[in-house]
Amino acid sequence: MTGLIILAAGESSRLGQPKQNLLYNGKTLLQHAIESGQGADCQTIVVVLGANADNIVSVPEVTTIYNKDWKEGMASSIRIGMLEISSKSTIDKVIIMLCDQPFVTSTLLNDLINKQSTSGKSIVASTYNGTTGVPVLFDHSLFSELLSLRGKEGAKNILRNHVADIAEIPFEKGGIDIDTPEDYERLRRLSD
What we know:
The chain contains 6 helices and 9 strands; from the N terminus they run βββαββαβαββααβα. By secondary structure, the chain is α/β, with parallel strands linked by helices. The strands form 2 sheets. Strands 5-4-1-6-8-7-9 form a 7-stranded mixed β-sheet, sandwiched between helices.
């Protein structure tokens, strides 16, 4: 069974407003992320909020948790999400994704799950712009490493330490994420 952690705890400081609430095609970026998870073979969906939690409407169909240590960086959100996922004994793999990648689809998430099943690799990562990254699936053998992450970088070190254990899924639009007003304006032009 697969769990999904949607990281949505950041401050959106470069953007100047909570990116989770930005509208794209009539829905917030966070709603897009949640609906992608709900349409995929994810049995548990955990949304990790932090900096702007009071300004983000909670979604009743998912588990929403608050990361009081959000200033530490992405690793603290992964840890708190993993604590929630780990409490469910049926979950043997987890996908970690960001709320600001509007082109993540249910199909992409299912491709990660299916690739792990066929490849037997402990990590299945998305590839775009010459890099390997999120959304990324980790199997249970790496749960303890995810729970011990520290710092701002998230799970990049786990990917670097386990290169031979990574299968890849191409995600052409994976590099489109929303960090600045200019990023959001480009996204809005794409939907016109």
